[in-house]
């Protein structure tokens, strides 16, 4: 306990004497008290007296012990920021795919060893306790995990960045496989409690929905728009601490939960329908109930728009309230201190909401408010698929957010004047660029709103940004070339190497020290050892151990036995036609076909692992999962494949699974149709862990290949510029006839070999591959894919060569750290100074 005496002070408001304790007086906690703190939380905070089977309470006690240490640093970080009045960024995202927090916090606070020792008295290991933590799966995939990696990098670089998101009651669904089919189960991740968060109900804000707009005149005759008769929802913040790596910085991720206000529908209430009136509360609570599980398209759901507005409004209000507390209603230099990064168009309604808050609530004139908006908003695009661009119907908008719709129309009217000035007389251009799409029903184009309202628009890999400028957003690029910029994605080397692959991390440390964990550009120093024989064999040994661990994991979850002596060929990511899991599967069938034909000279034994979730309404993606499982079943049961080929579909692929998978992978499958994958980030996690990529020239693969050298990357397939002409006279059936391998593969599939008791099951898949309109040109890329797979296998036969390439991949992965990405966001968009 503190030995400082409490401070007595006079409360000026009511004259009463009160006792104030300052946070500096909080009991000291440090490395030496960790074991005692753990025991105290276990026995007293949680009221437990023995370690149960599950380790759940021990995990909770440990999490609380670590959270105490985070809270202390978080307070210091906040105090520092307040004292310095620094410029801050807010990262607005509908998704933060955080995964587990414990091991990350231990690494970043440098408490892993101390914790191991503290756990000895409980006769258990840190690994077992860590396993009791439920993933925070508040995201679909790439975009959500990127947000999580960015938070880690911001804290590590000491940048003042706040994350703002939604505290979904149910995260990404849990996937199980029944008879080869995907089944979805709700992810009730909060059921056992979430020890990392701290709620701040006193900072709740109100978010308005529905109602209508009234025009009021004040005494001076000025018109004011009043959004009246609204149904309000409370946004309650829950703060999650984000520790930097060994720098005492702890930033905050603020997640909003929706709650009902205490107002009831009085008519219902008074007419005696008390219960019905209380049940109305449900409607408010629905908003943050569940994460939408599709990572593209399926647009138009009203609840989704409510989520987007709820997040945007609550976050902006939060920041404006803090501003007004410190500066009153003077917004003169607001843009000097704030910048908002929009993670795709999902929170892009923030453009209109900031206008509403400034104009309606804080009474700024339009031009002044627009100046602030267009100097503080920045938009990141994550997709090239035109069908994935968000559009909201105007009638829906009018009903749910009438005042926001008015503002969007006003923004658009002024924008179209600018278009008319730039392209005089070109009404077609005005129609093309309008934020409002005309048609039987008008729609709001959210990407256009984001571009018009932002000072920066960025893509997430060099090719992607290039395609945005030349394709999707070409006219906007012609209008405002300087808004556009590239920020190639990255992943955090803390979670994706130091934490998930401790054996490799230690081996790396033994040669180049551990400075790479903080500054990943140092990883290039590993190049010096790629030819070192003893280093190579240690490298192989580590890979083998990691493969052993993955074998157990796969066995545990699928019953399928992998063999660590075989090559591990892995594709894990969301299931999508453009990502072409089907192409991978055709290659598997080809390998199987070789085996049953006895063509096994030089055959390199492989374990092929696939995993990923399909959006519940995506018919083809679900078929692909079923087909992977059926093929796996037939292959694994066939005696002839023993020791040569194993295939598994890993159910419920998530962040924690990737932490076991990427350290064990030999060959990383990044095989999307060129021009479709914006960046990819799994490709970077595999590379860091020494996997070699087989891939197309798509997304960040291009930069990965350039970094590691063409000779250390297995390249195949059509290039982006070739795709349109290939599609023009695409004849997959001729391609199938001309490639004997593909012909046999298709015949084997068509013979029903993989669906003996389920006739017709894969007809849709067969037809898709054989269709002259196949947008993913699977048949076209098959031939060169198999060629490169053969080259990869041959290369793998020579373990020395393979290991060299593997080391070179890790050594060349320096630029794929999210620290590099965030440094660029900070220097080129946010203009932040480190704390
Ligand atoms: C859309 C409408 C309704 C509900 C949900 C959605 C929705 C949700 C999530 C649309 C898209 C997403 C996520 C997209 C995503 O993850 N994109 C990926 O972003 C990565 C990070 O930049 C890139 O590496 C990937 O290439 C890109 O596919």
How are the SSEs ordered, and which strands pair?
Layout: E1 7-10, E2 17-20, H1 34-45, H2 56-84, E3 88-92, E4 96-99, H3 102-109, H4 112-119, H5 126-130, E5 136-138, H6 142-156, E6 161-166, E7 174-178, E8 181-185, E9 198-199, E10 205-209, E11 212-217, E12 223-228, E13 231-243, E14 250-260, H7 266-270, H8 274-279, H9 281-286, H10 302-327, H11 334-337, E15 338-343, H12 350-361, H13 366-376, E16 377-380, E17 391-393, H14 394-400, H15 402-422, H16 427-433, E18 436-437, E19 443-445, H17 446-453, E20 456-459, H18 462-472, H19 474-479, E21 484-486, H20 493-499, H21 502-512, H22 533-558, E22 567-572, H23 581-596, E23 606-611, H24 619-637, E24 645-650, H25 655-661, E25 667-670, H26 682-688, E26 692-695, H27 701-708, E27 714-715, H28 723-728, H29 732-738, H30 740-750, H31 763-770, H32 778-797, H33 799-811, H34 818-830
Parallel strand pairs: 3-6, 3-15, 6-14, 15-16, 16-20, 20-21, 22-23, 22-25, 23-24, 25-26, 26-27
Antiparallel strand pairs: 1-2, 4-5, 7-8, 9-13, 10-13, 11-12, 13-14, 17-19, 18-19
Helix pairs in contact: 1-2, 1-4, 2-3, 3-20, 6-34, 10-12, 12-13, 12-15, 14-15, 22-33, 23-24, 23-30, 23-32, 29-30
The chain binds ligand 26Q.
Question: How would you portray this structure in words?
Answer:
The longest helix is centred in the N-terminal third of the chain and has 29 residues. Strand 7 and strand 8 form a beta hairpin. Strands 3, 6, 9, 10, 13, 14, 15, 16, 20 and 21 form a ten-stranded mixed sheet that branches. With 835 residues, the chain is of the alpha/beta class. Helix 12 packs antiparallel against helix 13 and helix 23 packs across helix 30. The structure holds ligand 26Q. The site of ligand 26Q has 22 residues, from helix 6.
């Amino acid at each position: 306990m503190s030995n400082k005496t409490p401070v007595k002070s006079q409360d000026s408001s009511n004259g009463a004497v009160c006792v104030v304790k300052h946070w500096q007086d909080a009991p000291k906690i440090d490395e030496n008290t960790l074991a005692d703190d753990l025991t105290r939380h276990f026995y007293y905070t949680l009221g437990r007296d023995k370690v149960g089977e599950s380790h759940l309470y021990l995990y909770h006690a440990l999490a609380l012990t670590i959270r105490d240490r985070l809270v202390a640093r978080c307070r210091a970080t906040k105090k520092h920021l307040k004292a310095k009045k620094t410029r801050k960024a807010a990262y607005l995202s509908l998704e933060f795919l955080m995964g587990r927090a414990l091991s990350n916090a231990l690494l970043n606070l440098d408490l892993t060893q101390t914790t191991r020792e503290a756990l000895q008295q409980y006769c258990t290991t840190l690994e077992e306790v860590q396993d009791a933590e439920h993933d925070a799966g508040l995201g679909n995939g790439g975009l959500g995990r990127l947000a999580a990696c960015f938070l880690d990098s911001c804290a590590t670089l000491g940048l003042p960045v706040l994350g703002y998101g939604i505290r979904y009651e149910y995260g990404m669904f849990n996937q199980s496989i029944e008879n080869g089919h995907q089944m979805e189960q709700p992810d009730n991740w909060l059921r056992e409690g979430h020890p990392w968060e701290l709620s701040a109900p006193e900072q709740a804000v109100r978010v308005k929905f529905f109602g209508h707009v009234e025009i009021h005149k004040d005494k001076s005759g000025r018109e004011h728009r009043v959004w009246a008769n609204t149904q309000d929802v409370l946004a309650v913040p829950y703060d999650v601490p984000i520790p930097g790596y060994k720098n005492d910085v702890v930033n905050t991720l603020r997640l909003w939960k929706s709650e009902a206000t205490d107002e009831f529908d009085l008519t219902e209430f008074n007419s005696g329908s008390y219960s019905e009136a209380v049940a109305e509360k449900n409607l408010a609570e629905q908003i943050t109930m569940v994460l939408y599980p599709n990572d593209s398209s399926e647009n138009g759901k009203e609840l989704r728009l409510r989520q987007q507005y709820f997040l945007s409004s609550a976050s902006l209000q939060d920041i404006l309230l803090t501003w007004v507390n410190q500066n009153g209603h003077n917004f003169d230099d607001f843009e000097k201190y704030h910048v908002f990064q929009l993670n795709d168009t999902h929170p892009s309604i923030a453009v209109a909401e900031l206008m509403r808050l400034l104009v309606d609530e804080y009474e700024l004139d339009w031009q002044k408010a627009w100046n602030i908006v267009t100097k503080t908003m920045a938009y990141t695009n994550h997709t090239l698929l035109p069908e994935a661009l968000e559009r909201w119907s105007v009638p829906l908008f009018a009903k749910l957010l009438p005042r926001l719709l008015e503002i969007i129309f006003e923004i658009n009217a002024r924008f179209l004047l600018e278009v008319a000035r730039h392209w005089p007389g070109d009404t077609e251009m005005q129609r093309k660029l309008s934020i409002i799409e005309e048609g039987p029903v008008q729609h709001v184009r959210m990407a256009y709103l984001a571009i018009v309202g932002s000072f920066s628009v960025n893509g997430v890999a060099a090719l992607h940004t290039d395609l945005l400028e030349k394709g999707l957003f070409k006219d906007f690029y012609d209008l405002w070339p300087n808004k556009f910029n590239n920020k190639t994605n990255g992943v955090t080397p803390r979670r994706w190497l130091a934490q998930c692959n401790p054996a490799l991390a230690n081996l790396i440390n033994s040669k180049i020290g551990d400075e790479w964990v903080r500054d990943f550009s140092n990883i290039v120093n590993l190049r010096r050892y790629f030819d070192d024989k003893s280093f190579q064999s240690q490298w192989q040994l580590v890979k083998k151990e990691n493969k052993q661990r993955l074998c157990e994991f796969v066995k545990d979850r699928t019953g399928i036995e992998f063999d660590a002596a075989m090559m591990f060929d892995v594709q894990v990511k969301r299931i999508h036609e453009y990502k072409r899991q089907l192409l991978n599967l055709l290659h598997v069938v080809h390998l199987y076909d070789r085996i049953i034909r006895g063509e096994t000279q030089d055959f390199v034994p492989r374990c092929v692992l696939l995993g990923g979730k399909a959006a519940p309404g995506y018919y083809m993606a679900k078929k692909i999962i079923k087909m992977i499982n059926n093929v796996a079943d037939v292959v694994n049961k066939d005696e002839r494949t023993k020791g040569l080929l194993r295939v598994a579909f890993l159910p419920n692929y998530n962040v924690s699974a990737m932490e076991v998978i990427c350290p064990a992978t030999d060959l990383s499958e990044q095989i999307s149709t060129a021009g479709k994958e914006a960046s990819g980030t799994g490709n970077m996690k595999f590379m860091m862990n020494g996997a070699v990529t087989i891939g197309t020239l798509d997304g960040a693969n291009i930069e990965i290949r350039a970094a590691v050298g063409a000779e250390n990357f297995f390249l195949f397939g059509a290039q982006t510029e070739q795709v349109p002409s290939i599609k023009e006279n695409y004849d997959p059936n001729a391609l199938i006839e001309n490639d004997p391998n593909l012909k046999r593969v298709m015949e084997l599939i068509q013979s029903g070999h993989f669906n003996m008791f389920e006739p017709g099951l894969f007809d849709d898949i067969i037809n898709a591959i054989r269709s002259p309109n196949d947008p993913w040109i699977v048949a076209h890329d098959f031939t060169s894919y198999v060629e490169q797979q053969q080259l990869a296998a041959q290369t793998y036969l020579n373990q020395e060569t393979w290991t060299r390439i593997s080391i070179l991949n890790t050594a060349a992965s320096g630029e794929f750290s999210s620290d590099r990405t965030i440094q660029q966001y900070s220097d080129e968009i946010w203009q932040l100074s480190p704390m």
